[in-house]
Amino acid sequence: MAKLTVVEAINLALKQEMEKDHRVLILGEDVGKNGGVFRVTQGLLDIFGEARVMDTPLSESAIAGVAIGMAIYGLRPIAEIQFEGFVYAAMEQIANHAGRIRTRSRGRYHCPLVVRLPYGGGIRAPEHHSDSNETYFVHTPGIKVVVPSTPYEAKGLLISAIRDPDPVIFMEPKKIYRSLREEVPEDEYIVPLGEARIVQEGTGITLITWGAMLQPTLQAAALMEKNGTKAEIIDLRTLSPLDSETIIASVKKTHRAVVVHEAPATCGVGAEIVARINEKALVYLEAPVQRVTGFDTIMPLPKLEKYYLPDAGRVIEAANRTVNF
Amino acid sequence: MAKLTVVEAINLALKQEMEKDHRVLILGEDVGKNGGVFRVTQGLLDIFGEARVMDTPLSESAIAGVAIGMAIYGLRPIAEIQFEGFVYAAMEQIANHAGRIRTRSRGRYHCPLVVRLPYGGGIRAPEHHSDSNETYFVHTPGIKVVVPSTPYEAKGLLISAIRDPDPVIFMEPKKIYRSLREEVPEDEYIVPLGEARIVQEGTGITLITWGAMLQPTLQAAALMEKNGTKAEIIDLRTLSPLDSETIIASVKKTHRAVVVHEAPATCGVGAEIVARINEKALVYLEAPVQRVTGFDTIMPLPKLEKYYLPDAGRVIEAANRTVNF
Amino acid sequence: MPKQVIETFSVEWLQILDEDGNCDEELRPSLDNEQVKKLYESMVLARTFDDKAFKLQREGRLGTYASILGQEAAQVGSAYALRPTDWMFPAFREPGASFVRGLPMRMIFQYWAGDERGSQIPEGLNDFPITIPVATQIPIAVGVALAAKAKGDAIAVMAYMGDGATSKGDFHEGLNFAGVFAAPVVFVCQNNQWAISVPLKRQTASRTLAQKAFAYGFPGVQVDGNDVFAVYRATSEALMRAREGGGPTFIECLTYRLGDHTTADDASRYRSPEQVEQWKKKDPIERLRKYLEKGGLWNKAYDQAVSSQAKEKVESAVHEEESLPPPDPLDMFRFTYQDLPADLREQMEGFVNTNGRRDQRE
Amino acid sequence: MPKQVIETFSVEWLQILDEDGNCDEELRPSLDNEQVKKLYESMVLARTFDDKAFKLQREGRLGTYASILGQEAAQVGSAYALRPTDWMFPAFREPGASFVRGLPMRMIFQYWAGDERGSQIPEGLNDFPITIPVATQIPIAVGVALAAKAKGDAIAVMAYMGDGATSKGDFHEGLNFAGVFAAPVVFVCQNNQWAISVPLKRQTASRTLAQKAFAYGFPGVQVDGNDVFAVYRATSEALMRAREGGGPTFIECLTYRLGDHTTADDASRYRSPEQVEQWKKKDPIERLRKYLEKGGLWNKAYDQAVSSQAKEKVESAVHEEESLPPPDPLDMFRFTYQDLPADLREQMEGFVNTNGRRDQRE
Ligand SMILES: Cc1ncc(C[n+]2csc(CCOP(=O)(O)OP(=O)(O)O)c2C)c(N)n1
Ligand SMILES: Cc1ncc(C[n+]2csc(CCOP(=O)(O)OP(=O)(O)O)c2C)c(N)n1
Ligand SMILES: [Mg+2]
Ligand SMILES: [Mg+2]
To answer: Are D208 and D222 in contact (CB under 8 A)?
Structure first.
């Protein structure tokens, strides 16, 4: 079994699904010869040709819209939006069509579409290249939102996303694109959508996170363990639909929780998690659930981004607040 | 003092601000001769002429973008997006420019722009004409979000929004456009942004809402009062920035809360309110804060919309859940 | 080469049947008498439907409705050029096209009565439901066209839009995409010269809409949209070219919206009755009627038969629609995803409980 | 009138200075020798800067940087036509234009080093900061132009964009808006034939980009973008017309991106060295140099003076930028709104506390 990066694991998933299912195709800016600006689609043009690995005009709304049409006709398009900061132009297609066509046609049409969306900060990228905008999609009915946190997860979740009969926004944490390696089976496997994973069991506190933020959360947990608190760590994997059950069961056991994400706090997915804990496990809480998030400000350019992004220190501080409450 | 509808109150605010400040102008689809599809801008073309009441092409992204440019140059544009379902096309301009220009230019430029956005269900409108999409804007840094709940509020809040140095999304609850009349002073007055209002004082429970949902909330409160519970009702007025203080103070007094909104539950503004109560008033809570919201589904067409929208019955049920907890 | 012309373009206008029913026989599409009568009957049916829908709305039996009065030829002529295997994307003002395609009339009533089941296009009919957000159907139609091309299906896609739609980003992105990939798609723009209250000259400074196609490297043509022969000819040629791999075409049908924008609108607020009167003289149905009459294909008896058949069809569709059981509120939840996720199931159960208690109370 | 041509359009090409430095004196703009030398010096400065920025990035002293190698004439020629009262909207690949406008070079370094203060355009300079989301600056530029027109300010706005930008909805919506309202704006498209790895023919099926202007009812022209005279002439005429109420113009500067897309890119993955070599022969600076030499305005001494002055300017800008104190993290909060809202103040205070404790630990 090879040790792969997230980029390589996604590339492998794409390749294998394209081999297996001739309906699967890729479209986006620079996905062809260039293999994607992050090389996620590297080599696929050579194998599958221009008809299945389509370099498109610079046209996010049409990339989404055309992919929707392809999905409706029976293909399995995987559209790449080059960076999360450019997905706003595709919001109209995603919210008004991808998420609605099954409902509005009462099932006559549906839209098995994957939108791959590199997101998040921490790689000293230019302006508009470091946001975390999952909330826009999680709040939008009719679509699913998936965020892998490791190479293994990335492959398995992407395969599920491609096979899912409904539109999936597959958000790829840029920060860990190449910073982690992990054993990734060459053989086919899936990680089901809608099920969170317990990364580490514990009883002292529940740490809830996803994507690139799993790493600082793990660091924090390691430090906390030295100080005697064994944290339970939940990697949500799928943000929509949200696996409340796993969260609630854990909080009932640990009585304390911290949610960690990069996006701004207000109306972030963290708020939703707090609300669900409030609804279903209020009496189990020993302290307010803490949110460790980006601020309600514009994500800064590289010189300040480290001040914006949650890190282990902030997670530990938040955990301490729940303990010292 | 005349009794005005929300439509008339907004029209009056527009007229008076345009008279007072020659920088104020209006642009959008059908805002001129037609006076807007809801007649909100009726009569203004005749008074102020084509240069200040501009009928535009069918072009939501450009309406937003052009208005941003005008604001940067020193005008005070008020852009109308005809219905909330069409604002997604303007998201890129709003999120990537309106909300960012002050930050990214470190104050050299700013964007005193108002986007008027009729929103919400309950008027048997066609598809895509009944959504409540405030979350998208509340989650977006650098912009403010205002929602009036009565004619008086509408005039005063709109004047504040127009004078505000930062971009404001002014969401107009279509359901109460003409269904309420209220004394609205002809004289100038403002309702400040960022301050919630206590519509009714009470001690039994806090009901938090905004916009059109104030009406069913008031009905619910009236019924609850008959049964002996005096609710404190908070009309948020401004969703971003959010007046946490008023909410927290009330919950500390009443120990119970229900949030009511039309938008889908997940990552709705209700979730944020629950999260803030959790952070600042957890120990005061006798029961989980309840959310009465639209479902995480597509807002239905008119024949089913009454099943989707919160009503007094659902508010009372939720309040009872907090009491019987 | 200092200063020189490197490209030239020209916009062509096509009219075959003039306002008095005179036909340019050289340009006339090869349709037999039965087919021409079918075009006539379809236009009469469209107008009969339109009239009824308007009245139902006024009686409170229908929600907002967008009239097609005056645009019957643009719709019927273009849709008649489609094959069943082709796909069709309406905007929101194309019932005339939808009936030609075979959409049960009941469904259009249903849609405008506020019932999603009106968008549940029957299996086998390759039509997209009505699209309200202007121009957003265009990239989707291009996607369907490209998918068909990728699969080797020799079909074409027709996408309708209004003049207002040409201002939107999705119009541009969709047409540009279609040009780059030579998608088998025909764009039919019903230029009825108004977008609600916004007149064409406020919509764009370009004199024709047809010329917008030059930006995308494929042909654009302006046809008399009230001339069913011109519309049919231009669209069928374009469809044929598309099916054979010749790429997209943009067809501007110059016509006029004789009615209000929708039943929620009052056009007298923003336009002069003179303009409307002028365009009434160009009536597409009357024009074909005169042509038929000249050819001995029209007489009073035929006229009555056509009109009473149309009325019957419309009335029976109204009856059908109004006899349907109301939609099930649980459909809200059922169709959000293929499988109901756990959290949504919980919302649905909450709804069932609340609603159940409510029904008991009522 | 059955079938007939109702509109014709043509695209003109403009070149004044050919690849060997020969000039069409009839078309040559009326610039005196000092002005022509200024154009030359500005292009040299732009190239010197570009070279330095590339090296700094390779040394890890700058973040991602987008090179302008080969596009100096398109930028310098167009910006030189602007007046200080005009407004300028760069895309992200126009430092050459920004220096001509008077933007301190230090700021461009700052921006690409990841410091927002690089976008804090000095008061009095009417330039917009760099825009990364492609084409989105276009409607904003149109808004500034319309605001100026509304206020009666006789200025023009210049908006830059790449060939890739022409595919985006905002390009279309912005240009269409400008056409309808006759906005005083000049669109300068640097068609460098690549959008990262996507070649022009995958960007659009239209043979020129200039012809896209016909869709909006205003003139479009294609100029040799490596010919600083042609660029200057076309843009200054368009700006003059705009200032005088004549409405917008679209100018396609046909040029070539000689370098990688940015320092994060490797163009050898997707294009042939031959194409690059061909375009190197059309070098805009070399061309003007030959012209100057022919006119006795260029010699080795002048060359050395120009190049050493440029180097000095660039080095001192680097020094300036690298001696700046780091940005204050609290600026994140300070500039979100004019007045810090209570909830954001609380976040800032939390940040100050955490960060304070952290600084102590470090
Ligand atoms: C994106 C969008 N913006 C605004 C509207 C509201 N609206 C509905 S129809 C219409 C005018 C459409 O004009 P046109 O495209 O010419 O079609 P027509 O109504 O003439 O058939 C407008 C502005 C909409 N449906 N979608
Ligand atoms: C809306 C948007 N999509 C994608 C990108 C990523 N991106 C940056 S530059 C670029 C290519 C731009 O090409 P062009 O407009 O020709 O300008 P050039 O780089 O050639 O100067 C792309 C795709 C972006 N910045 N904005
Ligand atoms: Mg129209
Ligand atoms: Mg380019």
So the answer is: yes
